[in-house]
Amino acid sequence: QVQLVESGGGLVQPGGSLRLSCIASAFTLDLLAIGWFRQAPGKEREGVSCISASDESEYFLESGKGRFTVSRDVAKDTVYLHVSNLRPEDTAVYYCAATDYYCSGDISSYTYWGQGTQVTVSS
Predict the structure, then answer these.
(1) Which residue among 59, 61, 93, 99 sits deepest, i.e. has the most Cβ atoms within 10 Å of its Cβ?
(2) For 107, phi and psi rounded to 5 degrees?
(3) Under DSSP, is residue 119 helix (H, G, I), strand (E, B) or coil?
């Protein structure tokens, strides 16, 4: 069973940056697509980005384009989400999730989920 552990969240001022990490265990990233999602208080969980098993990236969040970058290090079993020029509306719990090989914008396609890491953007 795939286990995912996120880290890297925190409190950051508007305009700041963070690098979120997602470490996967039990399966190699060569077989998994890893998606990033976020959920703000009182809102539904939404897709942010994804990187496939073939290292192709997709971005689901219009407001994140140009500010969010997904990458991975297969040797470290780790996927990263670099978030920059952060805004207060980016405040949310950020989750990574795994699905088989190809990215999907459908949240129900993702079988395994991490526990989330809190990102708070505030001055």
Answers:
(1) 99
(2) -60, -30
(3) strand
Indicate if the pLDDT at residue 46 is higher than 90. yes
- Residue listed under structure tokens 């990102």: 119
Contact 79, 96 (CB under 8 A): yes
Q: Which residues of 30-67 are buried (b: 16+ CB within 10 A; e: fewer)?
A: eebbbbbbbeeeeeebebbbbbbbeeeebbbbeebeeb
Condensed to tens digits (0 to 9), the pLDDT of residues 69-89 reads: 999 999 999 999 999 999 999
| 8 Å CB contact between 50 and 81 | no
Whole-angstrom CA distances from 7 to 3, 26, 54, 100, 101 are: 14, 18, 24, 22, 23
